[in-house]
Amino acid sequence: MNNADLLKIAKTFGDPVYVYDAQKIVSQFNRLTNAFGGVKHLKLNYAAKALSNINILKLMNSLGSGLDTVSIQEVQLGLLAGFRPEDIIFTPNGVSLEEIEEAAKLGARINIDNLSILEQFGSKHPDIPVCIRINPHVMAGGNSNISVGHIDSKFGISIHQIPHLLRIVELTKMNINGIHMHTGSDILDIDVFLYASEILFETAKNFPSLDFIDFGSGFKVPYKEGDIETNVEELGKKLSNRFNEFCKEYGKELTLAFEPGKFLVSQAGYFLTKVNVVKQTTSTVFASVDSGFNHLIRPMLYGASHEISNISNPKGRERYYSVVGYICETDTFASNRRINEISEGDILCFKNAGAYCFTMASNYNSRFRPPEVLWYKNKAHLIRERENFDDLIQNQVDVKNLFESKKEKAAVK
Fold it and tell me: 0.90 cut: is pTM over it?
């Protein structure tokens, strides 16, 4: 996609608007597949939480991806998008036994991350295969909110609890068909990933009937020119060789599984906003846009740095701007960032807006959520309409005659 395409989309569908480049998603999927070409059985399960629009799910399904889900609603979305139940894995955290049973009833594969639910589920449904999520106690990831494999994490069953876990499996006679871990997102050091993988291999030896080992994901993508990223080709070569060795030791060809989300869709996304006001203070020039952390919360929540470009004036003289939103709180997207000269009415483009942007959007300040557009085969397709006021109030219940006005009270007297 180029600036002209993006400007045309902003003009056609209005702003703000999310735009996704389908070809970039396809190329990322192929890149990861090729990186692990040395493995006989590979399964990529797209993490639906990253970007859950049904058209994106359909695209993933067409590529041969499975689906990683964390809620019963994502399981239902996956089925609606055409995924086979057996190609959907349900990996929730802290949900009820009833929700896990509902996912199992729909045919999804089950991944359990705590001993209590494991014992309850195994006692009631010993014939339903279950994957177990292990916490390897490895600190990895670019932010504490997305580092989920360390010792204090709420995710996974501690490796120190393996003896207890094995007792549950023995007592319930349940079928453990998979072992899983996810250490965190934005992993740069592949040696840390390989170290955690060795813990997973060691754990897997306790279960003789495995079909797959799921290594999670968390591959870092670049957020700006020259930014560092996970070397998936090097990881693919090293982990594939080690995985193949383990399969020989194990005596069975297993499937190597991943659950990439951000890696597949982040760089495919663009978020387009219009500049409402350019405000000069004594020390700062603010560019205030028609959006806020209600649409893109990652900079405020994770300290994420999204590249921002002025696609209305790409050759303008660079100046320093702080790009801020219209929310009635501090919602700073970028501080003192060099951007081509900005005028009111210009369209700014936030890159890497494909993952955890729309899916984390809200109606805070009673603002509407923007539309989503898919760029596919050089054509823009509207895949979600812009919300309107009716959407904002559709589930609110206006209880009639509940409150007496002051005038009514006075009339009664």
Answer: yes
